[in-house]
Amino acid sequence: ITADVAAGTNKFLLFGVPADKSSDTFDHAFIAEQVRAVKREFGDSIWLAVDVCLCSSTTHGHCGILNEAGDEVLNEPSVAALTQAAEQFAAAGADCIAPSDMMDGRIGAIRKMLAAGGHDHTLIMSYAAKFHSGFYGPFRIAADSAPDQRIRLSDRATYQIDPARPDDALLSAMRDRDEGADILMVKPALPYLDVLADVSAQIPLPWAAYQTSGEAAGIELAAQAGLGDRERLYLETWTACVRAGAAMIISYAARDASRWLNP
User: Fold this and answer.
1) Per-residue pLDDT reduced to its tens digit, 60-105
2) At a CB cut-off of 8 Å and minimum separation 6, what does 178 contact?
């Protein structure tokens, strides 16, 4: 979302990336206001899903709150902070809450909060099968959300799924389904089409495939170098996602999709 910084505050940069980061307290008011602005402008003509995570808000770049030693994510405090953010976004008018953090139990906590707050029509799209991948680089640069390499917990391997353990994706998805998720996701898309095909066949919920920033950058660079046609490359990858079981695709080229698919 591109927007000017809210009047009277210098706490936030464009795109909702906080300038003032914290280790344990977070203010998502700027993003919530942008959600309100988008819904005021477009109303029900769009379906607005809002990512819920802490990685761009924390001083250390992790998706949750760390212990004092900086070598472990504290699950319960992290879930509480994520639920507070989700509550702000739901109250602002988000059609869907999309937690991407991979903390245990966050779907159940958010579902309980939505029910208690009267947000019965707000969906939850869980990043249920989010792998510890090398394809997130461009986003982490743009969102200033890469883990701090100076601390002991220098990557997200302890809470994202090991690429060599695809069975964990099914267990994670089953947990999130049981806690009340409406939509489940596999991320990244192309490197894990086998996982998407497997889990979507076993869990009859809508499945999303997230074509990550690294995947998109590969297509964009190939097209710029004259090594492939941009439209054809995207359409071929999207077709592969649908073939593997995706009911929806999240892509950085989404703004082009309508024109390409409905010429």
Assistant:
1) 999 999 999 999 999 999 999 999 999 999 999 999 999 999 999 9
2) none
H helices within 64-179, ranges in order?
Answer: 75-92, 106-116, 137-143, 167-179
Q: How many CB atoms lie within 10 A of CB 27?
A: 17
Is pLDDT larger for residue 241 or for residue 9?
A: 241
Transcribe 149-197 into DSSP letters.
TTSS--SSTTTSBPTT-THHHHHHHHHHHHHT-SEEEEESSGGGHHHHH
**Residues 216/233, Cβ–Cβ less than 8 Å:** no
Distance between CA 34 and CA 244 in Å, rounded?
Answer: 34
Averaged confidence pLDDT in the chain: 92
From CA 92, how far away is CA 5, in angstroms rounded?
17
CA–CA dist 165, 186 (Å, integer): 14
31, containing H or E segment: helix 29-42
Active site residues: 130, 187
Say what the pTM is: 0.91
